[in-house]
Amino acid sequence: MFKVLVSDPISDMGIQQLMDASDVVVDKKTGLNEDELVQIIPEYDALLVRSQTKVTEKIMEAGKNLKVIGRAGVGVDNINLEAATKRGIVVINAPDGNTITTCEHAFAMMMALARHIPQAYAKTIQGTWDRKFLGVELRNKTLGVLGMGRIGSEVAKRAKAFGMDILGYDPFLTEERAEKLGIKLATVDDIVRNADFITVHTPLTPETKHMISRPQFEVMKKGMRIINCARGGVVDEMALVEAIDQGIVAGAAFDVFEKEPPEADHPFLHNPKIIVTPHLGASTVEAQENVAIDVSEQVLHILRNEPFKNAVNMPPVAPSVMNKLQPYFELGEKLGAFAAQLNNEAVQEIHVDYAGDLAEVDTQPLTRYIIKGVLSRHFGSDVNTVNSLHLAKVRDVNVVVSQASATKGFTNLISVSLKTQDGAERRVAGTLLNGYGARIVQIDKFPVDIAPEGHLIFISHNDKPGIIGSVGTLLGKNDVNIAAMQVGRKIVGGEAIMVLTVDKETPKEVLGELTKLPEINKAQQIAFA
Ligand SMILES: NC(=O)C1=CN([C@@H]2O[C@H](COP(=O)(O)OP(=O)(O)OC[C@H]3O[C@@H](n4cnc5c(N)ncnc54)[C@H](O)[C@@H]3O)[C@@H](O)[C@H]2O)C=CC1
Ligand SMILES: O=C(O)C(=O)COP(=O)(O)O
């Protein structure tokens, strides 16, 4: 049974599928502080949050069973991603579910700003019929959009319908896409100099922190207005207050703050030209259902070990590529595990080669499984597909991937070679045979045909008559039943290998006895976790 903790207010309707799942128990405990979370997190497999819960390294460290953190929304700046990756915890978000809602909030803020709606409302309900609030039209005004991702693009589309001229900047915005959206591709400098309204829609990164600060305000059009429904800190709060005092900025609308909630004496809360909302950008019935549905679905997949999308701490993979790779995941992991068990020395380099059908796709997700297989010998359940590449890196294990080799007659072939400190190299190759499933087809230089499952005994020996018989007799005497056997050699009388599939684990003593048989150099068990 998987236990899921929901620590922020998340739509009940959205998490219904989690609550209905027979293998999941959901607990809702909101408003907990770090220490309280540390206390209870050990029993949970998954944690679901919005932006309030700060998922710190301390919480993750305590979360020994934690496999996934689901963010019902876009921004993951409240989650320590590095700590999650290190511990192999998948972080997923729901990037699409609140785009329109947040865009509409930014638009609502822009209109409220243009027409002083919050200020006029406050006066009116106080009994003052004050008609001095003189607004501006949006029509024919220039809107600068910083960050033309999902939300920024939707804002631009709506602004066009209002007759605005739009300047957009985003490092990934191409001339072609700008043209398609009917906007002008601009620089940050163009935007700050020419816009009547600026709206920011970027994440908060070292690059975007204070991207609008004193130098930018100084060159702005007098009377411009600015909106931030993205992240506190993209616009420098103190520089904005100064720019308002200097008469440069006529008004600002902020949904987000550098520190949330802001202190009671925060200048934004006492400035009649600044309108504020308490991080409500994503707060609509529709968006909350959308993000909760998306995140619940992915959490279920992850808990059940099924393919998932939107992992923030793993690179994105197109569904078409994922469909192609998925059948190889198990084989990849087993090849890695097999190769690792052939070695006693510390691994220095893992070389993975993909051939045939796998030669032209982005195989990184599959490589993660292979590396997991290799490292699991030493890291056990501490390694998974999220942290396998990271663990290899911190342990100075060089991972080399190539996609160039010949297929040796197979339609697909994965080869895993491990180089160890003593200079030795061991190699295992496998394939997926149409209709027959996974096969190991090569061990070192020996061609074989082995189903990578169950309990295997790997024996290296000299190719002499009578060896198969003596091995069979010894195992039989010890009640180890052989289900299948493969022998491989390159030349008659030379080095040879034997791989036996047996019905159960072979006791260590029996392996020891096998090694003592004449002409046998080594006998070891190969297990697939
Ligand atoms: N107020 C609220 O409740 C909500 C806030 N957000 C925030 O809105 C922001 C945008 O969200 P989405 O559009 O969904 O994300 P997105 O990832 O689709 O778009 C962000 C864009 O910012 C661009 N960008 C990154 N660095 C930049 C830079 N230095 N200059 C200009 N552009 C840069 C990226 O290339 C990307 O296109 C995020 O910070 C998100 O956390 C999102 C939802 C709700
Ligand atoms: O999705 C985002 O990035 C947001 O900022 C929304 O935050 P929330 O889920 O409303 O706490």
UniProtKB/TrEMBL annotation:
EC number: 1.1.1.95
One GO process term, biological-process aspect: L-serine biosynthetic process
Listed pathway(s): Amino-acid biosynthesis; L-serine biosynthesis; L-serine from 3-phospho-D-glycerate: step 1/3
Enzyme class, first EC level, given as a word: oxidoreductase
Transmembrane segments: none
Highest rank taxon of the organism: Bacteria
Database matches in CDD domains: ACT_3PGDH-xct, PGDH_4
InterPro entries named among the record's database cross-references: ACT-like_dom_sf, ACT_dom, ASB_dom_sf, D-2-hydroxyacid_DH, D-isomer_2_OHA_DH_cat_dom, D-isomer_DH_CS, D-isomer_DH_CS1, D-isomer_DH_NAD-bd
Domain ACT, residue spans: 456-528
Gene Ontology molecular-function annotations: NAD binding; phosphoglycerate dehydrogenase activity
Record keywords: Amino-acid biosynthesis, NAD, Oxidoreductase, Serine biosynthesis
Catalysed reactions, as listed in the record: (2R)-3-phosphoglycerate + NAD(+) = 3-phosphooxypyruvate + NADH + H(+); (R)-2-hydroxyglutarate + NAD(+) = 2-oxoglutarate + NADH + H(+)
SUPFAM superfamilies hit by this protein: ACT-like (SSF55021), Formate/glycerate dehydrogenase catalytic domain-like (SSF52283), NAD(P)-binding Rossmann-fold domains (SSF51735), Serine metabolism enzymes domain (SSF143548)
Family: Belongs to the D-isomer specific 2-hydroxyacid dehydrogenase family.
Protein function: Catalyzes the reversible oxidation of 3-phospho-D-glycerate to 3-phosphonooxypyruvate, the first step of the phosphorylated L-serine biosynthesis pathway. Also catalyzes the reversible oxidation of 2-hydroxyglutarate to 2-oxoglutarate.
Protein name (record): D-3-phosphoglycerate dehydrogenase
Species, as recorded: Paenibacillus faecis
Upper classification of the organism: Bacteria, Bacillati, Bacillota, Bacilli, Bacillales
